[in-house]
Amino acid sequence: MASNLGYITIMYIPVNIILSIVAGGQTQFYYLLIGLLITLLLSFILIGLWYAQDIYNLYKLSIKDAEITIESGTKMTKLTYENIACFYSVNKIVYTVQNDSTTINTDFTLNDLEEKINDQLFFRANRKIIIHKDAVDLIEKIENGKLRIRLKVSIENDAIAQINISRYKRKAFINWFQ
């Protein structure tokens, strides 16, 4: 970005002097400086927005194609983040639920998964479950400021059929979900 602004500065001064000579006026340093500063400010903003758009596009590509390798005993399965609805734990065994309601047991712990996966797409709802943003079907408020979440996929395990989010995690969940 600095090189682009340098090129603008190098080109601005001679062009401004040439235009003032052609117009028949004298170049005043004050107007030259003010014009240069305004031009540099506008250029800085436009170049910054252009770079931000490129970074955002790269970020979207990284999320879309991101995948995780699930190890289950002797099997290894690659799943994209888009195909995962949630991860849940029962009796210290962590299961992965896909969007088609199939379940795969894993060798990970929920803490390991929380470090590996993208926190923009997944949220640790409580000690037992990590949910995907696109898997959330319904959010309802219950007593004491808690939230109850219903997922789009059906899970065979009744222990996590109702996902409750504590009042302490409620604000973080709402911010993440929006």
How would you portray this structure in words?
With 178 residues, this protein is of the alpha+beta class. It contains four helices and ten strands; from the N terminus they run ααβββββαβββββα. The strands form three sheets. A five-stranded antiparallel β-sheet has the order 5-4-3-7-6, covered by helices on one side. It has a three-stranded antiparallel β-sheet with strand order 8-9-10, with no helix packed on it. Strands 1-2 form a two-stranded antiparallel sheet. Helix 1 runs antiparallel to helix 2. The mean pLDDT is 84.
SSE order and pairing:
Elements: H1 2-23, H2 29-64, E1 67-72, E2 75-80, E3 84-90, E4 93-98, E5 103-106, H3 110-116, E6 122-124, E7 129-132, E8 136-141, E9 147-151, E10 163-165, H4 170-177
Antiparallel strand pairs: 1-2, 3-4, 3-7, 4-5, 6-7, 8-9, 9-10
Within the CATH hierarchy, at the fold level, what is the topology of the largest domain? OB fold (Dihydrolipoamide Acetyltransferase, E2P)
Q: Structural class of the secondary elements?
A: alpha+beta
Describe the global form: elongated
Order of strands, widest sheet: 5-4-3-7-6
Biggest sheet details: 5 strands, antiparallel
- Low-pLDDT stretches are none
CATH superfamily of the largest domain: LytTr DNA-binding domain
> Any idea of the CATH class of the largest domain?
Mainly Beta
User: What does the oligomeric state look like here?
Assistant: single chain
Count of folded domains: 2
Q: Report the mean per-residue pLDDT as an integer.
A: 84
Distance between the termini: 32 Å
Strand runs, count: 10
